[in-house]
């Protein structure tokens, strides 16, 4: 595959080896609800995944067929938590226990565009980190890349994650036609 068919991306792998001493408080002025999803419908998962990740070129889960996505989401080692602001979906995070529970990976984390810039990111990331540590791992990890929000890497580091490795990958964006076909099955 040539570079013309994809985007060169630097992926940074980060780890945290002890829980934070303090977690950020919820910002005032918002009616917030953070709910763990059980048996999340595929169409809703694809919707929040797309709405959170569209500007950052998230594609992997959208390209899964129904059976593969259903299997992924049914994995008992995986959790999806959805954030609601004033009753409407506003973001989500996804955790995956790995290596027999030794590692908890923050697989996905983000806010929808209408929730960005409102002072929610630190608190919301703190919620994800707290839940990851509640699962009892030896360490928590996350990956971010140069396609993510420019504040993602600094925020992860501010919250206590430390970069441990970097790699280059080629990301193939979704075409408008492919996105429409996936989201409107």
From TrEMBL:
Record EC number: 2.3.1.-
Keywords: Acyltransferase, Transferase
Name of the top EC class for this enzyme: transferase
Domain of life: Bacteria
Residue ranges constituting the N-acetyltransferase domain according to the UniProt record: 35-181
InterPro entries: Acyl_CoA_acyltransferase, GNAT_dom
Gene Ontology terms, MF aspect: acyltransferase activity
UniProt-recorded name of the protein: GNAT family N-acetyltransferase
The organism's taxonomic lineage, starting at the top: Bacteria, Pseudomonadati, Pseudomonadota, Alphaproteobacteria, Hyphomicrobiales
């Amino acid at each position: 595959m040539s570079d013309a068919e994809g985007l060169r991306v630097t992926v940074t792998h980060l780890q945290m080896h002890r829980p934070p001493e303090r977690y950020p408080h919820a910002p005032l002025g918002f009616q917030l609800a953070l709910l763990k999803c059980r048996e999340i419908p595929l169409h809703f998962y694809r919707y929040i995944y797309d709405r959170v990740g569209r500007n950052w070129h998230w594609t992997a889960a959208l390209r899964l067929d129904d059976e593969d996505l259903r299997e992924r989401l049914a994995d008992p080692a995986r959790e999806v938590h959805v954030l609601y602001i004033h009753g409407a979906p506003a973001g989500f995070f996804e955790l995956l226990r790995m290596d027999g529970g030794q590692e908890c990976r923050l697989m996905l984390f983000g806010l929808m565009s209408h929730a960005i810039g409102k002072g929610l990111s630190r608190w919301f990331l703190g919620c994800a980190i707290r839940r990851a540590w509640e699962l009892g791992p030896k360490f928590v990890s996350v990956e971010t890349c140069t396609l993510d929000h420019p504040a993602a890497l600094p925020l992860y580091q501010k919250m206590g994650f430390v970069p441990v490795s970097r790699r280059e990958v080629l990301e193939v964006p979704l075409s408008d036609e492919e996105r429409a076909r996936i989201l409107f099955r």
